[in-house]
Amino acid sequence: MEEPREWLVLELLKTTADFFSARSVDEPRRSAELLLGHVLGQSRLELYLNHNRPVYRDELERFRVLCRRRLEGCPVQYLAGEQFFYGMRFAVDERVLIPRPETELLVEHAVESLGDIGPADAERTVLDIGTGSGCIAVTMARLSPFARFTAVDKSASALELARLNAESHGVLSKISFIEADMFDRGFLSKLPETRYDMIVSNPPYIPVAEWEDLPREVMAYEPSMALTVSEGFECYRAIAGLGRSLLGPGGRICLEIHADGTLGVSAILEDCGFEGISTMKDYSGHDRIVSALLKR
Hints:
The protein is of the alpha/beta class. It is 40% helix and 22% strand.
């Protein structure tokens, strides 16, 4: 019997990328790189530095299994078990939403704004509502040495992954992880702090009516409870209401929003006693971040 051919890293990447492209897989080259890198335990850069490395039979079989799942629509981040966010590697799986680049803007703005609250070396407290993978709280904890964080999610399984990410990035001691639902009456009693300097959140904001318009791999694999609500603004009303109880005068709220949500979210914040409302656009030119201060 003829022995199966031996593949080298570079030719396997090219063949796989062409194969994915012909079948309309999103980001075919990147998908091939991430999946092969996952199998070989190498970064994308290391793959090219070792482009003449042979891919052995057991590695090739594991790679093919992942490629078949990618063809079925499973996000490459779930298959590789990771997503880079703000230059940091986060473990992700189907328990949590895949962190998006737009949310990095939320982190940047929140960290910059946190520095404007109180003396430079004063301890600050931040509440992250709907933490998911923990990408917001963990990244902010790495960037903000004088801050403590409370990361809340109603999903116990999501919090398990968020704790893992906090531990892997060395900030577990700076973050309290709390299982709680922002819509429950007892939400406030579950928090370790009675006052916070900042509330930050990327809450579910896609109306259920828009669910069918989302990409197939989002609908089939990402957790719907992290994405959708009935109308689109329910979480913002809840968070703004909590802000009145949890933020001191001059405390800041930073929110990621739906591209069409600026007017609605701004009106909610104004009705709840916030001022200095501002917006930031994402990389596509859409309004994506809303920020405001609680009136003094």
